[in-house]
Design a protein that fits this description.
The protein is an alpha/beta fold. The protein has five helices and eleven strands, in the order βαββαβαββββαβββα. Strand 3, helix 2 and strand 4 form a beta-alpha-beta unit.
Length: about 230
């Protein structure tokens, strides 16, 4: 089976074409855009909620996009085991939709942060991380956000840890996690989490911006290749 990807387009999305380009041109798989006003998912196997500023980030990041018609279908798709990855604003939308626990706050610096960061892979057995080499201490992925400060109650954090749902943490190039390398104040240095079923991933860093050698970094490919490997093997 050759998986088909769908990239949801909201008003204000600005990483939708980046994600499309990676899937279509770099990885050579079928991909289609899914308009936010539609309900039809076009028989896709994977849904990408891309980064950007859906609905201008008015009210609260992801809060309006969560009520787009397409999200009813996305929620149903995810609840039935469909694979969903939310990147940056897409992660914020997943939180608002209740597909992942927690909320996003303003960066602790109260400034927009745009730079390359390193991520320690905390769970290598997910369908999103299986292709990350075991010898890879950290992957290099860029961030670009103003509200990436992940927050949850102590009970939720404990549940995430107990269920091994924390997938990525901000780290240094050697995979060492510390406050010094936390770019936004996220609790436990959380950069990405999955749901209990393991079919929904939310992450603030942008893997689609780290897939082309022209850009000097390709670690983002590991995440998309992990999904493809899961669906084809």
């Amino acid at each position: 089976m050759k998986p088909k990807f769908g990239v949801v387009v909201f008003p204000g999305s600005n990483c939708d074409h980046d994600a499309y380009f990676v899937i279509k041109k770099i990885l050579g798989h079928e991909v289609t855009f899914l308009w936010h006003k539609e309900n039809n998912l076009d028989d896709v196997n994977v849904i990408i909620l891309p980064g950007g500023f859906s609905y201008g980030d008015y009210l609260r990041t992801g809060a309006i996009a969560r009520f787009s018609p397409i999200m009813n279908s996305v929620i149903d798709f995810a609840n039935k085991g469909g694979i969903v990855i939310g990147i940056c604003n897409g992660f914020q939308i997943l939180l608002e939709a209740g597909l992942l626990p927690g909320v996003m706050l303003r960066n602790i610096s109260l400034q927009f942060v745009c730079k390359d960061v390193y991520l320690s892979t905390e769970n290598t057995s997910t369908l999103f991380t299986s292709e990350i080499p075991s010898e890879k201490k950290a992957i290099k992925i860029p961030i670009a956000h103003g509200e990436g400060n992940y927050f949850a109650t102590e009970d939720v954090l404990k549940e995430l840890e107990d269920n091994n749902q924390i997938v990525f943490k901000y780290s240094d190039s050697n995979g060492v996690v510390s406050d010094e390398v936390n770019p936004n104040g996220s609790l436990l240095n959380i950069a990405g989490i999955i749901n209990k079923k393991g079919n929904v991933l939310g992450m603030m860093p942008h893997p689609e911006r780290a897939c082309d050698s022209v850009l000097g970094k390709t670690d983002g490919q590991f995440i998309f290749k992990s999904i493809i490997n899961y669906l084809t093997n």
